[in-house]
Amino acid sequence: MSYPNKPLPPGTPAPDFTLHSTPDQSVSLHELRGRPVVLIFYPADWSPVCSDELAVFNQLLPEFERYNAEVMGISVDGIWSHTAFADDRNYQFPLLSDFEPKGEVAKEYGVYRQEGTAARANFLIDPEGTIVWNEVSPVGINPGAGGVLDALEKLEGAKAKEPAR
Amino acid sequence: MSGTYTEPTLTVPVNDDDWTIGPADARVTFLEYGDFECPHCGHMEPILRELRRMAGDGMRFAWRQFPLTSSHPYAEIAAEASEAAGAQGAFWPMHDTLLANQQALAPEDLVAYAGQLGLDARAVATALAEHTYEPNVREDFMSGVRSGVSGTPTFFINGARYDGDYELDALARAVQRAARAAR
After folding, report:
1. Which range of residues forms the domain containing residue B135?
2. For residue B36, what are the CA distances in angstroms to B15, B72, B85, B117, B124?
3. Looking at chain A, which residue has its C-alpha nearest residue B161?
4. In this structure, is residue B5 part of a structural domain?
5. What is the total count of domains within chain B?
């Protein structure tokens, strides 16, 4: 099968996948129809503590809940690494393991790098399963979460119900 | 790899509600989004102090709160303590104290620092217990998120995110460049 050589653009149906989120649980994208989905591709677990964009997303979960959005991280790390990493950092959202075949989902979304990991890339998928926004960062730069929040605000039908907290 | 990417800029300019040192009409405003429990912020503080000394009145320095609580359990309460000290006119002394004592930021430590700084420690203790200043911290955090801050410390020089080296020389050059551009 051939893969896109650049990130799937807005308007593209989001490729479905089923990946482990814990050693005995998995998540399928199609099960999340009806809700916006934020997919955060990142290169690897165990990046330096203080420059970790995942920590920012974790802290923003109440904001994403206002939009009924599901936030998921995804990297090529194995599920046991994810489990230890999430425990260590107190992350409250699932980390999906794109491990076997390695990087398959990253490849389908056009964000797999030759180094063997996913790029830092964020996608927003609308409740109907279509990619409506993406963002890919230069190597070494964390994109943060501002772009995703802006895109969520614009997403039709995803209206904030009430201020978080 | 191609893809949409927008260089982050500061969405909320430094204003009268911010904690600042230096003249408001300085040519350069240097903003730090920081976390009092982040070791990198602690490491940077002597460097930034030297930068402030070098730049003198040519630079205004500002701090906004960006506590990452999943990594740093006391970052939020320490940020609130600095706001509480600020309400008593002592934000910067508390800021300096917290960054110099990153290993001891439990609530009882924070109240003790308030006492050592000659503040009304009971008022600080009450503010911490009631999270009086949580909205202030949250407002800073969200302005950071909207400006592309994804970790600490993150610096903005005249509203543009600084992605260069964190050595004193490189920072000083960036400040000089910004000063020239603002002339």
Report:
1. 19-181
2. 21, 9, 14, 17, 17
3. A141
4. no
5. 1
